[in-house]
Design brief:
Layout lengths: L1 E2 L2 E2 L8 H6 L41 H28 L3 H4 L21 H11 L7 H9 L2 E9 L2 E8 L2 E8 L4 H11 L12 E8 L4 E8 L6 H7 L4 H19 L10 E3 L8 E3 L5 E3 L6 E4 L4 E2 L15 H4 L9 H19 L25 H10 L14 H13 L10 H15 L4
Antiparallel strand pairs: 1-2, 3-4, 4-5, 5-7, 6-7, 8-11, 9-10, 11-12
This protein binds adenosine-5'-triphosphate and magnesium ion.
Adenosine-5'-triphosphate (ATP) binds next to strand 3, strand 5 and strand 7.
C-alpha cells in the first residue's frame, strides 16, 4: 500500500475461520494492491503498485494527441458524473452494500471488508465466530489506514485522542508516541482478551503501528462517544436520580464483567483495571457508561495463580489511589487486592456522580474527589496524609438521607472506602444492590 508517498508491503497468513468470516482479496487502484494465494509459502512474490502513465511533454503533441487529451477527460468526467448519481441513489458507503464474493475472485474496487455490515456488527460477528478476541490483524491495519482523522478531542498522559471517520462512521483514534510503545502494546493486548467485549467496556476496533519514515505512529482505534468522559459529562450536566442510577449501574456492570473470571475454553481471565476514574469512563449516547483506558490493567491466571505482568503497584492516578497503594501495604501476591483497590476508586466515582443529582432543588457543582482536602495536582505524600493518616474521605451530605437512592449510594460509597480492603463490597454485590434501585425506579414504565 501507498502510505505517505512510500510503498509498503505487508505479508500475512490468515486462518481459515478468519478467512471465511472476512473477505480480503481486494485492491484499491494506486493505493493498495492485494494478492491472495492458498498454498504453502506462496506469498513469496514481489508486488508493485501500478505506476502512473508518463505523459509526453505538451510541446510535442500533434492534433490527434490534443483531441485525445481533450475528449478522454471529458468522457471520463461524464462517466464519473453518471456513476456518482447512481451511487447517490444506491448507497453512501462502498464497504457496506457490495455483495459478498468468493475469496478466489478478487475484486477490483477499493473495498476490503465486505460483509454488508457496520463496523459494530462486523466486530460482533468476529467476537462470536472467530477467536473471540477481535478482528484479524490485517483487517485491523486496513481499517486503521482508511480512517480520516478529523479533530482533536483530548489529551492524556499517553497521547492524543482524535475523532476520525471510517466509512462514514465516527471512530476514536488514540495516538501514542513511539516513546510509549509499551503502553500502546499493552492496551491493545488487554482489549483483545478473549470474551472481554461488553456493552459497558469501550469497544476496541483496531491497533496499528505506522512508520512514517521519521518515527512510528501507534494507533488504537475504538468506538467514539460524542459525550466524552464521565468527567466531561458531569462537569457539563446535572442529572436526575434515575439518571444517576443508570450511570452507576452501567459502570458497575462493566467493572463486574472486567473483574469476573469466566471459566472454559472461551472463558476470560479476571482483570483488574488499576486506573478507575471519571476521566477513564466514557458516556454513550443513551446515557450509560463504557469503561476505557485498559492500559494499566492486570490479568489473573487462576490455574497458576499468577498475574500477567511484573508489578509496579503505584501506577494509577494519585487522587484515586486506595489507601493500601498510597502507604505501600498492598499485598500484590493476591490478585483480589487489585480488584479491591478498583472498588475504592469506584466509590470515588460514585461520589462524583451523586453530587450532580438534584435533591429538593439543590445540586452541588461538579468537583473532583478530595477537592477540598488536596491541591489540584496532589503528590503521593499529600494523598497519603489525607487518606491514610487522617483517614479522611469525601463528605457525604446530609440531604442525601432524604432520598432512598442517594441514601443507598452513600452507604455503598462508605463500604467501598474502608481502610481494610477485605471489608469492601465486591463488584457483584454492588451490581446487585444498584440493580434493585434500577428495578424500583422502574425504567420500563
Ligand atoms: N472513545 C472515545 N470517544 C470520545 N472521547 C474520548 C474517547 N476516548 C477518549 N476520549 C476523550 O479524550 C480525553 C483524553 O483521553 P485519555 O485517555 O488520553 O486521557 P485522560 O483519560 O483524560 O487522562 P489519562 O491519561 O490520565 O488517562 C478523554 O478525557 C475524553 O474526553
Ligand atoms: Mg484516560
Amino acid at each position: 500500500m501507498l502510505t505517505n508517498g512510500k510503498e509498503e508491503v505487508i505479508k500475512s497468513c490468515i486462518s481459515l475461520p478468519e478467512l471465511n468470516a472476512q473477505v480480503f482479496c481486494r485492491s484499491s487502484n494506486n493505493i493498495t494492491r492485494t494478492e491472495c494465494c492458498f498454498s504453502d509459502f506462496c506469498n513469496n512474490i514481489t508486488l508493485q503498485l501500478p505506476t502512473a502513465a508518463v505523459s509526453p511533454s505538451p510541446a510535442h503533441w500533434g492534433p490527434v494527441e490534443l483531441t485525445v487529451v481533450v475528449t478522454v477527460p471529458v468522457c471520463l468526467l461524464s462517466i464519473a458524473f453518471t456513476l456518482a448519481i447512481c451511487a447517490w441513489h444506491g448507497r453512501q458507503c462502498p464497504y457496506r452494500k457490495s455483495k459478498r464474493q468468493s475469496i478466489e475472485e478478487p475484486l477490483s474496487d477499493g473495498s476490503l471488508v465486505n460483509t454488508g455490515k457496520s463496523l459494530k456488527d462486523l466486530i460482533c460477528d468476529m467476537s462470536t465466530s472467530g477467536s473471540g478476541s477481535g478482528l484479524p490483524l490485517l483487517v485491523q491495519r486496513t481499517i486503521a489506514r482508511t480512517i480520516i482523522v478529523q479533530e482533536l478531542v483530548g489529551k492524556g498522559r499517553f497521547g492524543e485522542v482524535w475523532r476520525g471517520k471510517w466509512c462514514g462512521e465516527d471512530v476514536a483514534v488514540k495516538i501514542f508516541s513511539s516513546r510509549d510503545e509499551r503502553s500502546w502494546f499493552r492496551e491493545a493486548e488487554i482489549y483483545q482478551t478473549v470474551m472481554l467485549r461488553h456493552e459497558n467496556i469501550l469497544g476496541f476496533i483496531a491497533a496499528d503501528n505506522k512508520d512514517n519514515g521519521t518515527w512510528t505512529q501507534l494507533w488504537l482505534v475504538s468506538e467514539y462517544h460524542e459525550q466524552g468522559s464521565l468527567f466531561d459529562y458531569l462537569s457539563r450536566n446535572a442529572i436526575t436520580i434515575d439518571g444517576m442510577i443508570k450511570l452507576a449501574l452501567s459502570v458497575i456492570s462493566g467493572l463486574a464483567h472486567l473483574h469476573m473470571e469466566i471459566v472454559g475454553t472461551q472463558g476470560k481471565p479476571a482483570i483488574a483495571h488499576r486506573d478507575i476514574k471519571s476521566k477513564n469512563i466514557l458516556v454513550k449516547k443513551n446515557e450509560t457508561c463504557a469503561i476505557a483506558d485498559l492500559g494499566l490493567a492486570v490479568k489473573h491466571d487462576s490455574v497458576l495463580n499468577t498475574i500477567d505482568i511484573p508489578q509496579n503497584p503505584r501506577v494509577g492516578t494519585k487522587r484515586y489511589m486506595a489507601p493500601e497503594i498510597l502507604d505501600d501495604t498492598i499485598n500484590t501476591e493476591i490478585f483480589e487486592s487489585f480488584k479491591r483497590a478498583d472498588i475504592y476508586s469506584l466509590g470515588l466515582v460514585y461520589w462524583e456522580i451523586a453530587r450532580r443529582c438534584s435533591v429538593g432543588g439543590i445540586i452541588d457543582e461538579y468537583q473532583l474527589p478530595y477537592f477540598d482536602m488536596v491541591s489540584s495536582d496532589p503528590s503521593l505524600e499529600d494523598m497519603r496524609r489525607v487518606v491514610c493518616e487522617q483517614k479522611l474521605r469525601p463528605n457525604i451530605p446530609n440531604q442525601w438521607q432524604s432520598c432512598e437512592a442517594l441514601r443507598v449510594m452513600g452507604r455503598i460509597m462508605r463500604e467501598c472506602w474502608y481502610t481494610n480492603s477485605t471489608a469492601r463490597l465486591t463488584a457483584l454485590r454492588i451490581k446487585k444492590t444498584i440493580s434493585q434501585l434500577y428495578i424500583a425506579a422502574d425504567f420500563k414504565s
